[in-house]
Specification:
This protein is of the alpha/beta class and 293 residues long. Helix content is 41%, strand content 16%.
Length: 293
């Protein structure tokens, strides 16, 4: 069994980007600038955004954090989005999800300029991804593809079962895994909460990508030997015995499933760090596109 070390690979990607940014500086070019909009004080969101800002600093990007209060209205947030769309200094930006309940997430994401949508959530970018055109690929699926590529995991002709059909992970990764290319050329089954014979499907799978958000959902008796496991789930489970009062776990019963798997991602340290690395890669791509215009 080999661990797919997302932390290690994400650090390699960051080093590659750092070299490119240093060359941009040498040529007197503007370095990439990533902005993040955070509404409210959600604990997980604060952690994610803080990590993104620190990563920008480390690799030589400029970054801007716009932290708005919980009571920010939808109209105020849309104004902020419009300002970022029209700011030539910003190459790409993200609106950190989830947003407070009084704000329509879809309306906000639709307002983001697709050319600055480094999260890859806008329908224009999702549509281009589905049509195999050059675009911003949503950072988590992009990270999974990069992890498979760098570990040279054979995907051609393999049966991939994706559990979860969210627009952010499940649906895009099911499309990417079926497309021509390496990784890709896989036969994909997209399973979800209404799938009746899930265990039957996962037992056939050469690759299981679980993006369900249910702790330890995938058990050892649901997978065959030598399977490749990509665990996208990340859940805080309350635990008073821990210093933080919780522990983080994935969708997979790691202890038991890892005994059968040929490759497996840990949680934390698997897909999570790759998501941030690919967000930075998308921001670099945005800057390069702007330079080319």
């Amino acid at each position: 069994m080999e661990i797919l070390d997302g932390k290690k690979v994400s650090n390699q990607i960051k080093e590659e980007i750092t070299v490119k940014v240093a060359k941009m500086k040498q040529r007197g070019e503007k370095v990439p600038h990533l902005a993040a909009v955070l509404v409210g004080n959600d604990g997980a969101s604060l952690t994610y955004v803080g990590s993104k800002v620190r990563s920008c600093k480390k690799i030589g990007f400029e970054s801007t954090l716009i932290h708005l209060p919980e009571e920010t209205t939808q109209e105020e947030l849309l104004k902020q989005v419009d300002q970022l769309n029209n700011d030539p200094d910003i190459d790409g930006y993200i609106v950190q999800l989830p947003l407070p309940k009084h704000i329509d997430e879809e309306k906000v994401l639709m307002a983001v300029d697709p050319d600055k949508d480094v999260d890859g959530f806008h329908p224009t970018n999702f549509g281009k991804m589905a049509l195999d055109m050059e675009t911003f690929i949503s950072a988590t699926p992009f990270g999974i593809m990069e992890l498979l590529k760098r570990y040279q995991i054979e995907t051609e002709g393999k049966h991939t079962v994706v559990i979860g059909r969210s627009h952010i992970v499940g649906r895009p990764i099911s499309i990417l895994m079926s497309q021509k290319g390496n990784p890709g050329n896989s036969t994909v089954t997209l399973a979800h909460s209404r799938t009746k014979n899930l265990k039957e499907l996962t037992l056939q799978a050469d690759i299981v990508i679980s993006a369900l958000g249910v702790p330890k959902f995938l058990k050892a008796d649901m997978v065959k030997d030598d399977v490749t496991i990509i665990d996208v789930g990340i859940t805080r489970v309350p635990d008073e015995t821990r210093e933080k009062g919780y522990y983080i776990t994935g969708d997979v019963d790691y202890e038991n499933v890892s005994k059968k798997a040929s490759y497996i991602t840990p949680v934390p340290g698997g897909v999570g760090p790759m998501t941030i690395a690919m967000l930075l890669k998308n921001t670099l791509l945005a800057r390069e596109r702007h330079n080319a215009q």
